[in-house]
Amino acid sequence: MQQGPKTGTPTYCGYGRATTLTEAIDAHGGEAQASRDAFVALSNEQRAQLLGFLGRLRTPDNPNEDLIGPLEADPSPAPVAREGASSFRTNR
């Protein structure tokens, strides 16, 4: 979701072609046609629940740390390649 350049309201579908999630879903076809059709087939209550859920999703401020945690140093030493030694065999 992006913010409109002048209005500050949410926009969807790249360059702001859609101003609501419903417009964004409705604009999709092709590979997304089955998902679009499933959305259209929902009851008004189901659609409202789904849109409410989607409207609450946010991108974390620090996705790498927020989603997978800080990276820790690997305590095991890296393997050392020995010249001339290899476990890779070919059929030549």
Give the secondary structure arrangement, pairings included:
Blueprint: E1 2-3, E2 10-11, H1 21-26, H2 33-41, H3 44-56, H4 63-68
Antiparallel strand pairs: 1-2
Keywords for this entry:
disordered N terminus, mainly alpha, about 90 residues, two-stranded antiparallel sheet
Describe the structure in your own words:
By secondary structure, this protein is mainly α. 37% of the residues lie in helices and 4% in strands. It is built from four helices and two strands. It has helices spanning 21-26, 33-41, 44-56, 63-68, and strands at 2-3, 10-11. A two-stranded antiparallel ribbon has the order 1-2. A hairpin with a 6-residue loop joins strand 1 and strand 2. The radius of gyration is 24 Å and the shape is elongated. 1% of the residues are buried. Residues 1-5 have low confidence and may be disordered.
